[in-house]
Amino acid sequence: MPIVPIPVSPIVAPKPIAYHPLSFHVLALIGPFSVLGVLARLGLSALASYSGGPSIFPLAYAQATGCLIMGFCLALKEPFNRYYPPAYTALTTGFCGSLTTFSGWQLDIFKSWLNANDARRSALSDVMDGLSKSVFTLSISLASLFFGMHIASEISPYFHSAPPPRKFTRRFLSILGICTYAATIPAYYLLPREYRHQATSALLFSFPGTLTRYLLSTQLNSALPTFPLGTYAANMLGTALLGTFHVLQSTANRPLSPASCTTLQGLSDGYCGCLTTVSTFVAEIATFKTVGHKYRYALTTFISGQLVLVCIFGALLWTGDIGKSQTCGFE
């Protein structure tokens, strides 16, 4: 009697759960990763600022690191989304977007044009300083992005997608994320007062800045396929706010109180730093298929950022109402 093989049904991988961009699980993870991104940016900038002057401007380290991780995540987007899509959003939008900052980059360039430190140098040196920060930041960011993609492509054959987390694990991660961001409130009051202008004040404003950018991108980026309006709006808004806060911190006639200066510094490093992003900006440039779209988006965004700062600083600086550097005192 012939042996009839028993049909075996193929093992079907569980279908990944679809998450709305504004679902609880997504927003709950963006908060703590925004906090981690700000801490990493402030920490890298502090490490790169030392006596004698660094070999490159301190903010370049944060921009390069954020773009490296962004490139890595972009290359592994599909495995991430098969596993847990909110984790991908938390790493890219939350961590990388908060680690890199477009507004801080633009302000650094603008202060170079002005020679804000009153260094003994010629006008040509001011131009070279601004050009160096412009060109090298873009070059380093793009190189880091592609290097991150290369690293991901090398390890992707060994990257086995794990099964999606269970319902309990997803809820636990969301609650942990909320508690992590909520911990920034007692940290502001319990840690030493000198930490407030250095870090803890910025941590309070990190998630609101990232959330604003995320909402703008989800609502506006699809309006024009060749020009991400959401990212552009977030970068321009954040640059305008940072310029305004810097003006308030540079008032020569009526200096602000230490508490006000600390709040403004927290808004600058936290809200504006997380509202604007270089990693997403560079990733969007890299993903455009035509060279014309790449240059149009990059140049429009860069020139707009500088024009915004000229409009905010120009009249006040030239009339002597504010100084080139900050006059604000801290607690």
UniProtKB/TrEMBL annotation:
Asked if the keyword Membrane belongs to this entry, the reply reads: yes
| Localization in the cell | Cell membrane
Q: What are the record's GO terms for cellular component?
A: plasma membrane
- Which Gene Ontology terms cover its molecular function? fluoride transmembrane transporter activity
- List keywords of the entry alphabetically: Cell membrane, Membrane, Transmembrane, Transmembrane helix
Membrane topology summary: Multi-pass membrane protein
TM ranges are 22-44, 56-76, 131-152, 172-191, 297-318
* Protein origin, superkingdom: Eukaryota
Q: Which reaction does it catalyse?
A: fluoride(in) = fluoride(out)
| Pfam families named among the record's database cross-references | CRCB
Summarizing the function annotation, the protein's role is: Fluoride channel required for the rapid expulsion of cytoplasmic fluoride.
- Give the protein family: Belongs to the fluoride channel Fluc/FEX (TC 1.A.43) family.
Its recorded name reads: CrcB-like protein-domain-containing protein
